[in-house]
Description:
The complex is a heterodimer of chains A (488) and B (320). Chain A has 488 residues and is α+β, with helices and mostly antiparallel strands. Chain A has helices at 47-65, 98-119, 122-127, 129-145, 148-156, 161-186, 192-200, 206-226, 228-234, 236-241, 256-259, 271-277, 287-290, 311-323, 335-340, 344-349, 354-376, and strands at 16-20, 27-31, 33-34, 70-71, 74-75, 77-80, 85-88, 91-93, 251-254, 330-333, 380-386, 393-395, 399-410, 416-423, 429-430, 435-438, 443-452, 460-469, 477-486. Chain A has 17 helices and 19 strands. Chain B has three domains: 7-84, no CATH class; 106-187 and 281-310, Cytochrome Bc1 Complex, Chain D, domain 2 (Orthogonal Bundle), CATH 1.10.760; 191-280, Cytochrome Bc1 Complex, Chain D, domain 2 (Orthogonal Bundle). Residues 306-320 of chain B have low confidence and may be disordered. The A-B interface holds A 13-14, 17, 19-20, 24-36, 226, 229, 233, 387-390, 393, 403-405, 432, 444-445, 447-449 and B 31-39, 41, 49, 60, 62-68, 137, 140-141, 144, 148-158, 161.
Amino acid sequence: MKSDPLASDRPAARRVIAIAAAGDDSTVVTSLYQSEGKIYPRSVSGWFSRWRWTLVWATQLLFYGLPWMSVNGRQAVLFDLAARRFYIFNQVLYPQDLIYLTGLLIMSALALFLFTAVAGRLWCGYACPQTVYTEIFLWVERRIEGDRMQRMRLDQGPLSARKLLRKTAKHGIWAAIGLWTGLTFVGYFTPIRELMGEVRTASLGAWELFWVLFYGFATYGNAGWMREQVCKYMCPYARFQSAMFDRDTLIVSYDRLRGEGRGARPRGQSAAALQARGLGDCIDCGLCVQVCPTGIDIRNGLQYECISCSACIDVCNTVMDKMHYRRGLIRYSTPNGLAQGLSVAPMWRRVARPRVLIYTAVLGLVSLAVLGSLLTRAPFKVDVVRDRGTLARMVGQGTIENVYRLQIMNATEQAQTYRLRVEGLEGLQVVSADRVELAAASALWVPVRVQMPPAAIGPGSYPIAFRIDAGQAGDFELFEKSVFVVPR
Amino acid sequence: MGDFFNSGWSWAVAIVSVVSILACAVLLWLAGKAKVSAAALARGDNTTGHVWDEDLREYNNPLPRWWMWLFILTVVFALVYLVFYPGLGSYPGMGQWSQQGQHRSDAQRMRAELAPLYARFTATPVDQLSQDRQALAIGQRHFMNHCAQCHGSDARGSKGYPDLTQGQSAWLGPLSGEHIVRTISQGRQGVMPAMGSAIGGEAAISDLAHYVLSLSGSPHNEIKAFSGKRHYAACAACHGADGKGNKALGAPNLADNYWLHGWGEAAIVSIIKNGKSNVMPAQSGWLSPEQIHVLAAYVLSLSGPAPAAVGSIALPARTP
Lengths: 488, 320
């Protein structure tokens, strides 16, 4: 296994513009921008790599498959922006339910905090779409252009028919994956079967076409071209996740005490001989650098570029196996664990530290609250607005009447009949129709007249409440406050 | 010149816009370079070599070059935008885009989408349409948006604003689709002239008010009503000798129990003395004939099923 100089990976592309004045004070004017060298990650296999591929399959089956599922004779998951209805299996959500999106985001954020505190950038390494699509695109690249060395040679070589063919095939397949991703994404907002029909008849709407191409291009560009640049320069999570590490966070780390000094050595040399030469377990093969998708050397310690993909762990373990050394020269470990030489069990015990326990408790509570609220929410909504035209009026011989507008929204996919009652004052009653029929998933403004018997109460405004229930259709009852005005 | 008093302002805005964008490009070019000490570069410690306050050093981490292209892209985008969209002073842009135009085209698209629905409604006479649940649902929304401010959400009105649910007797005109369509689209004016001087003094007006109250059997002073009766001649011309009003004139029925402008002596005295000028504004400025057609069906439905004798109405002219 020959050592690979880092320089070939990261050519110094920085341009020196001018060199001024000789002597000690001489300055060089350099550009503040630099073309970064292309990274050719070497293929890797192993335990963590298998986990990543498992997650690639799981997330992508979910993402590509979900829009094709049907429930109640409609697409199971559909975000109908035009009708402002969001179908998620049996639930129909409306813009008024935005709080559930807030809840979901809070849960995601807390989960990110929790996972990061326990084991670093797990999200980045296994589940982030940027990682997942890069993995898929790299697989395509490897099938067509070969592994690291072949790809490097192909890129350095002159343009030939063979090179052109391979590059065309690669970009063609990338573009196809990108387009399919774009179509699937838009399929969450426009029924995907209709969308595919429109694609077949080339009658895609202008905006649909725009978003398909936009997301298609974003996938192709980010996973094919930008790759680690997204993580290093564009992603905000990447930067703040490392702020959530502490000294007991499991991170991908190189065991410096065990590894140094590095150096090549023949296989099977005795421990004593190695010690005499001052050699640790690191044979300085450089494979951990070659497999790194962000082009760093993990042996320099924790770096912000590290997305915790564990490719270096997998490849180092294969080398250790070949050398008949113990596995885990590069492994998940904590800074405290490395410094104090802790074994696995005490490190795992430290997972149950206050920070992690608090994150877990808050995440659990928020999840329970969101789920509970979602499952017990009334499948209709009511807003009570006092009539804008009349404050109060006298009808007949001194009966006081107030008018309200109730906006009732049927959030179910069946027609419903709602029953209205009013309470809060003795003798108060609804005199207009107290039953309202609403078609499936529709909303209606209902004028409601409420009367108070003559001379029952003096002038003033009194708090009252409407109770609305869906009758036999469910036990749900909504309670909406308002006021009843008696004029002077 | 649009929003500007003077074309000079337009030029000023245009020049400031273009100069600002170009200044960004120049700044990008000027600030894209840094002086680094050759010694530091040779040391390879990735600092500029400049030291402040004994140990503060500046790192020299370059941005990726594609980032610079994003900056350039924003400059190009800004210039292209200003060519196509309004932004350079009063220059309307090659795309001729405007908010009014956007609104017009959106409204036109919406009308085109709704056209088939309204076509079905307008093909049905108002009187028949007042039984159509879908039309009534749409009509109710129009009512809530355009009528409820005065007539109330429940259409029962308030003082000065007619109750639309009273049916044939209180209606100041024939209870027909045609009549309602005309009222909504062209509006109505109701005028009761000030009759104070024609009647006489305060006492006479008060007596007359009691007589008017007596017409509907409302509580009143018999003696005052008796002496007020002789003043009623001035009213009979419009309201009729029996006080039952005259629909052809739009004179209300004084003998029923519907009091649009208030009940009791004080309210009646005020109307006799000061008269009343009431206005229903015309709605054709913002509602299309199709919308008025549906709205009229809803208003008609408020008075229960319309009598068949009223007959159907001629369709209002449709705008092309």
